[in-house]
Amino acid sequence: MKKALLLIASIIIFINTTKVFSQNEVSGTVTYLFNYYQGNKADVGSKVYLIDSTMFSKIKNYENLKNYSLMNSKRFLANSCIKSLAEYNSENDYKKLIKQKEKLENKNKHLQEKNKEDYKNIVDDLKPFNKKIEDKKKELEKWTNDLQENKALTDDEWNIYCRKAAESLIDLSNSKNVKTNTANGLGMFTFKKVENGTYYVVIQSKNRSGLDVLSFMGKVYSKKIIVDNSDIDVSYNFTVN
Questions:
Q1: In the 8-state DSSP scheme, what is residue 205?
Q2: Which of 28, 112, 180, 228 has the most CB within a 10 Å radius?
Q3: Computed from CA positions of residues 172, 175, 179, 180, in that sequence, does the dihedral angle turn out positive or negative?
């Protein structure tokens, strides 16, 4: 009986040890949009960092770097909403209906029996336009609220946010505890013998730059991954946005 219990205990220890010290690979291919005619190319020379989540959380302003890609996307989406709203409000059919509606309202003619039907038809015709505008306003509000919570809404706030993220990236680059890799001639990178755990992958483009402080020397992408007895692919394409 004792031998059986010892055997079971040994198996459990072996399984747990195998799981904790399981060796995995974190790899991927980094590309960038060269132009809309020639398409994507390998982002040769881009830097890739693999950071243990515990170590990453000790880096000053690490959350700015961790959330940079997400905040940058939300700023792009917010600006897209603003552009769409301007286009919606300038549509000829919409402007024409608004003008007709205001004309009846200003003259108060819609209260007269002969104009009630015309007024109702105009209001009905405006409903799909108004819904489209209202939906886009709600979407804009969502992005702006998220950006405001992270102090990344205004241009001044965004500059400060990016500067802090850049400082975190410099700290990572100088840290001996961070695994680094460089994309090869095919844009590929591989981290071997990665133990199970939670990590952050940060990729800095070599060939696609941005306008803010952080991405001026190369656009940056970050992603949280969980390694659990399996290989992880963290491929990414840097676009012009």
A1: -
A2: 28
A3: positive
The set of residues, in sequence order, having a beta carbon less than 8 Å from that of 61 and lying 6+ positions away, is 164, 165, 167, 168
CATH architecture group of domain 22-63+154-238: Sandwich (2.60)
Beta bridge partners of residue 31, listed in sequence order: 42, 237
Q: Residue 69 CB: number of other CB atoms within 10 A?
A: 17
Which residue, 158, 170, 154, 157, is CA-closest to 217? Answer: 170
Is 169 strand, coil or helix? helix
Look up the pTM and report it: 0.79
| CA dihedral sign of residues 182, 184, 188, 193 | negative
> How large a percentage of the chain has pLDDT more than 90?
77
Question: Token pair for residue 140?
Answer: 């804009």
Q: pLDDT by residue (tens digit) across 113-167?
A: 777 888 899 999 999 999 999 999 999 999 999 999 999 999 999 999 999 999 9
Domain positions in the chain are 22-63+154-238, 78-149
Does residue 42 contact residue 29 with C-beta atoms inside 8 Å?
Answer: yes
Question: Which residues, 6 or more positions from 129, have their beta carbon under 8 angstroms from its beta carbon?
Answer: 88, 91, 93, 94, 97
